[in-house]
Design brief:
By secondary structure, the protein is mainly beta. Helix content is 11%, strand content 32%.
Length: 231
């Protein structure tokens, strides 16, 4: 992705969250210059990769296949009072989707917190590693719903669906309904090792520096005096 595209995606996400009265923590707005002044008091942010996460999954087509994510909290091993959960908020542009994937260990709730509808499709993996059309049970706001593999579940604002580990999934903001504010509440998230793709995808694409960065992404924080947390 180009740095200019990342900068614009963050600007759009900030404006969208503000429009929907979803406040971000102060570190969301720290400049690279401010980050260079931060010490070990910010190690949890650095090592658990909190903050901005903008990706096109290597597609080269961010408006159609991408995500603007802000990780608010996460857990890990060796952190004082370590959390057993994670929370992300996402700006989903209308029609923008993720690649089909599953997680080996993470369980997550996808919550529509405002804006347009979110369409989520779920599958069981078949014996060859593909997608099975067989029915599966999904918890939608605590109510079990049986759907066919790949059948879209429409989440209107206020609604949510639970994605179990090993359950293949893909979700997007529904066409014709506008951008969506999506929240993910989950068990501890390890984006470096727990994403399994069923189509070509790169979780953290290479960045082309065509203009100065205005924000550090979650994997770019300057080293600083950290204490060796891990996830």
């Amino acid at each position: 992705m180009k740095r200019s595209e990342i900068n614009k995606a963050i600007d759009r996400a900030v404006a969208f969250f503000a429009e929907h009265h979803f406040p971000l923590p102060p570190f969301a707005f720290w400049t690279p210059e401010e980050w260079l002044k931060k010490g070990p008091e910010c190690d949890e942010i650095r090592k658990l990769r909190l903050g901005w996460d903008i990706t096109d999954f290597g597609s080269g087509d961010f408006p159609r296949k991408g995500r603007a994510i802000f990780t608010l909290r996460n857990g890990g091993v060796g952190i004082p009072a370590g959390k057993s959960y994670a929370q992300k908020v996402m700006h989903l542009r209308e029609g923008q989707r993720s690649p089909v994937h599953y997680h080996k260990s993470k369980m997550e709730d996808i919550i529509n917190c405002g804006g347009g509808n979110i369409l989520i499709c779920l599958w069981r993996p078949d014996s060859s590693g593909g997608l099975s059309p067989s029915p599966l049970d999904v918890s939608v706001d605590g109510i079990v719903r049986r759907v066919s593999g790949g059948e879209p579940i429409c989440l209107k604002p206020g609604e949510s669906a639970c994605v179990q580990p090993l359950m293949c999934h893909q979700f997007r903001s529904g066409e014709g309904t506008g951008d969506s504010l999506s929240m993910e509440v989950s068990s501890v998230c390890n984006d470096l090792a727990d994403n399994c793709w069923l189509e070509s995808a790169v979780r953290f694409p290479e960045i082309i520096e065509d203009e100065p960065r205005r924000y550090f992404l979650c994997g770019e924080y300057p080293a600083g005096r950290t204490v060796g947390f891990c996830i």
